[in-house]
Design a protein that fits this description.
Layout lengths: L2 H12 L4 H11 L3 H6 L1 H5 L2 H5 L4 E10 L5 E12 L5 E7 L5 H17 L5 E7 L8 H15 L8 E4 L6 H15 L20 H19 L8 E5 L3 H12 L3 E6 L4 E3 L6 H10 L7 H4 L4 E3 L12 E4 L8 H9 L4 E3 L8 H9 L3 E3 L1 H4 L1 H16 L5 H25 L6 H19 L4
Parallel strand pairs: 3-4, 3-5, 6-7, 6-10, 10-11, 11-12
Antiparallel strand pairs: 1-2, 2-4, 7-8, 8-9
Helix pairs in contact: 1-2, 2-6, 6-18, 7-8, 9-10, 9-16, 9-17, 10-11, 13-14, 16-17, 17-18
The chain binds NADPH dihydro-nicotinamide-adenine-dinucleotide phosphate (NDP).
Length: 445
């Protein structure tokens, strides 16, 4: 049995009840065969077993009082997965589907993504099974305060720096930071990123993940002699990542025709009005079907999954994990999809991903394509350290350069290990090597 298979079986056995985590490990391991063959030191130092076991996993009770005066209990998590190259860094997700396996898959992927940015940040992730949908603003505040009342003791600007993710945006980060500051009695704003501009947030952080996805896809297309102009784009999700991916794609002349939420999707052949989506989703916080109130000629389909039956040149899954399964991948390929840009984390199942690669679809994998968010969070940390703010243009330029560099690193790593132009493998390899080397240099932790 190959070494990789042997280690994978151990990991599978040890984490049986966490299928998403096992899926994420399997996807990374599938890229590592040539790396392990060339670097016996990774085997000698047992890097694969070490890198798949979090340094620390914190699980805690989050009690809070709802508007009806009832005491509600949720479960909070923070996974400090790997700190070999910098303080743990990764978002917080508030969604009812959150459990240890989701936290671990996200934390594991974050290790490689953060490494790929070229910035000094380790991998972490956290969140809660709290469902923000339908909660009042005061309930959100009380929940965030309770969550931070435990989390504060585990984080710090040189220890672990959380940010947003699904269900955690600027409003939640504000409440979380307020409680941190109250408990600590100090203005340590480098402890969280995604902050508001009035208390240390970075310009362009809100846009960064979505813009970064499109910068990466543009780079990938151009490398292959193609471009974004007039391309038909389908985007799943209508949250932070989806909105700014749509905005940037339109700026480059692409035609974004479909966006969704967890209930269904809209199609507007004239091109989606992204400003309206922002108002519906960021301000009014209502369902995407309300889009039709202003544009009755648009179509609403109450079946989120059917989105991948829509014909497109470029598919940008920007909602959640395992959004595209093999069946959806087949439909996309049959409809002539040219490129896939993964805005969400692990939006494709492993068999879907392999199907895209086998059918010569250009794949911009999540770890590389959506790394612009965390990269800009690291730029926010830098600005907090030097107590200075860069302009929007300065941050956006750094983000763009970082995305170009990630594409280059992934393409070169893939080529170096004899895998041709395979950005999925290249991103895994480039991200892995830096962390593995840092772990070896630091001894046997
Ligand atoms: P948001 O909460 O802002 O938006 C999430 C969007 O996805 C919403 O439209 C939501 O619909 C939809 N969605 C959530 N869960 C499901 C589901 N189970 N089925 C279908 N649709 C769903 O989150 P973000 O935009 O921040 O995050 C989206 C993805 O991008 C996630 O995978 C996240 O991990 C990843 N990501 C985010 C980064 C960031 O900077 N924010 C950075 C890197 C990756 P509804 O409103 O109906 O719930």
């Amino acid at each position: 049995m190959s070494y990789l298979k042997e280690v994978f079986e151990k990991i599978e056995k040890r984490n049986q009840s966490e299928p998403e985590f096992i899926q994420a490990v399997e996807e990374v391991f599938a890229s590592l065969e040539p790396v392990i063959a060339k670097h016996p030191e990774y085997v000698e130092n047992n890097i694969l077993e070490r890198i798949t076991e979090p340094e620390r996993q914190i699980i805690f009770r989050v009690p809070w009082v709802n508007d009806a005066g009832e005491l509600v209990i949720n479960r909070g998590f923070r996974i400090q997965f790997n700190g070999a190259i910098g303080p743990f860094k990764g978002g917080l997700r508030f969604h009812p589907s959150v459990y240890l396996g989701i936290m671990k898959f996200l934390g594991f992927e974050q290790i490689f993504k953060n490494s790929l940015t070229g910035l000094p940040i380790g991998g972490g992730k956290g969140g809660s099974d709290f469902d923000p949908k339908g909660k009042s603003d005061k309930e959100i505040m009380r929940f965030c305060q309770s969550f931070m009342t435990e989390l504060y003791r585990h984080i710090g600007q040189d220890i672990d720096v959380p940010a947003g993710d699904i269900g955690v945006g600027g409003r939640e980060i504000g409440y979380l930071y307020g409680q941190y500051r109250r408990i600590r009695g100090a203005f340590e704003n480098g402890v969280l990123t995604g902050k508001g501009l009035t208390y240390g947030g970075s310009l362009a952080r809100t846009q960064a993940t979505g813009y970064g996805v499109v910068y990466f896809v543009k780079e990938m297309l151009e490398y292959n002699g193609k471009d974004l102009k007039d391309k038909r784009v389908v985007i799943s999700g209508s949250g932070n990542v989806a909105i700014y991916a749509a905005e940037k794609a339109q700026q480059y002349g692409a035609k974004v025709v479909v966006m969704s939420d967890s209930a269904g999707y809209i199609r507007d052949e004239k091109g989606i009005d992204v400003e309206l989506i922002k108002e519906l989703k960021e301000v009014k916080r209502v369902r995407i079907k309300e889009y039709l109130n202003k544009y009755p000629e648009a179509v609403y389909v109450e079946n989120q999954k059917a989105i991948w039956e829509e014909k497109c040149d470029i598919a940008l899954p920007c909602a959640t994990q395992n959004d595209i399964d093999l069946e959806s991948a087949k439909k996309l390929v049959a409809n002539g999809v040219l490129a896939l840009g993964e805005g969400a984390n692990m939006p494709s199942t492993n068999d879907a991903l392999n199907y895209f690669l086998d059918n010569e679809v250009l794949v911009a994998p999540a770890k590389a394509a959506n790394a612009g968010g965390v990269a800009t969070s690291a730029l926010e940390m830098s600005q907090n350290s030097i107590r200075y703010n860069w302009t929007f243009e300065e941050v956006d330029k750094k983000l763009h350069d970082i995305m170009i560099n990630i594409h280059k690193e992934a393409a070169e790593a893939s080529k170096e290990y004899g895998l041709g132009y395979n950005l999925v493998a290249g991103a895994n390899i480039a991200g892995f090597k830096k962390v593995a080397d840092a772990m070896i240099a630091q001894g046997d932790y």
